[in-house]
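Dear support,

I submitted the protein below through the web form. The confirmation email said the job was done, but the results page showed an empty box. After a refresh the structure appeared. I'm attaching both so you can tell me whether what I see now is the final result or a partial one.
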Amino acid sequence: MTQEQSTGGEGGIEGKLRICKKCLIREMQEGEYFKNMYEYIASLDPDIKSDDTLYEARLACCKDCDNLLNGMCRICGCFVEMRAAVRKNYCPAAEKRW
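What the results page shows now:
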C-alpha cells in the first residue's frame, strides 16, 4: 500500500498526506521515514526514554564505531538513534560501548 492509497487518494484526510504505518521504508517518500522516526522518538513515554545527556553520549559512541553505516548498526540492523532513545536498550556489540 502506498502513502496515497493509505489516505484515500491525493491529499487524503484533511488534505494532508499521512504516513502509512503498514508501508515499507522503500514505499515512503524520500525523507518521510526520517521524519517518522524522529516523531516516534519524541513521542516515547518519559518513563522509558533516555534523557538528552544519555542519548547524546550513546550516539557519540555509535559515531565512533566501525559498525555504523548510514545511521544503522551493522551488528543488529537497528537505526541507532531509535535504539539509543530507549533507556533500557544497550549496544549490541560483543564488547558493549554503552
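Response: this is the final, complete result; the empty box was a page-load delay. Residues 1-14 have pLDDT under 50 and may be disordered.
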